[in-house]
Amino acid sequence: MLDAATTASVAADARATSPAVSVVIPAKNAAAYIGEAIESALMQGGVGEIIVVDDGSTDGTDAIVRAIREPRLRLMRNDASGVSAARNLGARNARGDWLLFLDADDRLRPDAVKTLLATARTAPQAVLVYGDYNTIDSAGRTIGRRDLLKGRLKPSGNVLERLAGGNFIVNGGIMLIRADAFRTSGGFDVSLRYCEDWHCWCRLAATGEFAYAPKLLLDYRLHTANTMNAAARTPQDFFPAVARVFGDELILSKLPSGAAARLRQAAEIHLVTYAATQAVRFGRYREALAYLGMVGQRSLKAMPRSAIKIALSWLGI
User: Fold this and answer.
1) Closest CA to 198 of 266, 118, 257, 297
2) Which of 122, 263, 276, 312 fits as disulfide partner to 164, beta carbons 3.0 to 4.6 Å?
3) What whole-number distance in Å separates Cα of residue 270 and Cα of residue 275?
4) Distance spanning both ends of the chain, measured CA to CA
5) What distance in Å separates the CA atoms of residue 263 and residue 255, rounded to the nearest whole number?
């Protein structure tokens, strides 16, 4: 995790002349999509710099980045230390007041940053502002149907209790984070393989308010590499992050008294349900049913809601 003590002075020195938003793109063997991700960031108003952190690519990702003649674009190397370390490195060297973590295979929608900055102006106390996303395939065609849920509102204000019970944000490309708050919170925990983003968001929520912009701001790409990775995950892969969240003194100190056990159960149910939705998407219906049984072992009352989420995943929602 980032050392807040050593980075605070960097943030203070940079604030007077910093651009509004620094986009950090960790990239490993992302040659097929990195150009599109960078282009989507360059089109955004309010973006002062784009930092691509090459995490040990062997497919020419760095050559593609170097070929883009754009003064706002910076390339750094991370020596295959992992996505969390790459994001932390980019954040540590960012000059912006706000950070946006964009995955190298995703793309921002037009005016995404403008929308988030406008939301930030209406919520000056927020340390994080966020929206929503849709899904696309490897060719960039829309495959998700999350627009059907456009009336769904996500929480603003003090969201820690809700967030500790399950990650409703999902993707870092739909948010702006105040750079000083990110550094103070410690950044991404490099010891976590999965759900490190959820732990990071929870720590941020323990330090300040969030604000929600009800718009689809990101195209989250589903392709062979990341879907096969998702297909291989089981609920047990996610449980170390649950232990980390509910063993974190900063988070626990800001939760309501006596709420941790209830929220931990909710978080486990949330992650088991997520694993079931992924199983459905890959046609592994027996596994999905087994995971639904795991939900029932934790709470029979939670089973209908989980079953609905699993059914919606079959529809691409």
Assistant:
1) 266
2) 263
3) 9
4) 33
5) 9
- State the DSSP code for 282: T
CA nearest to 45, candidates 111, 101, 95, 98:
111
Lowest-confidence segment of 5-14, 72-81, 156-165, 232-241 by average pLDDT:
5-14
Instruction: State which amino acid sits at residue 152.
Output: R
Answer yes or no: is pLDDT of 135 > 90: no
Half-sphere exposure of 224 (CA within 13 A, CB side): 3
Name the residue type at position 96: G
Residue 124's Cβ-count burial label (10 Å; 0-12, 13-18, 19+) is exposed
The C-alpha atoms of residue 101 and residue 171 are separated, in whole angstroms, by: 9
Q: How confident is the model at residue 278 (pLDDT cuts 50, 70, 90)?
A: confident
Q: Is the pLDDT of residue 12 over 60?
A: no
**∠ Cα 117 160 10 (to 5°):** 55
CA–CA distance, 47 with 54 (Å, rounded to integer)? 20
pLDDT score of 88 more than 90: yes
DSSP sequence for 224-242: HHHHHHHHT--HHHHHHHH
| Mean pLDDT value across residues 6-11 | 40
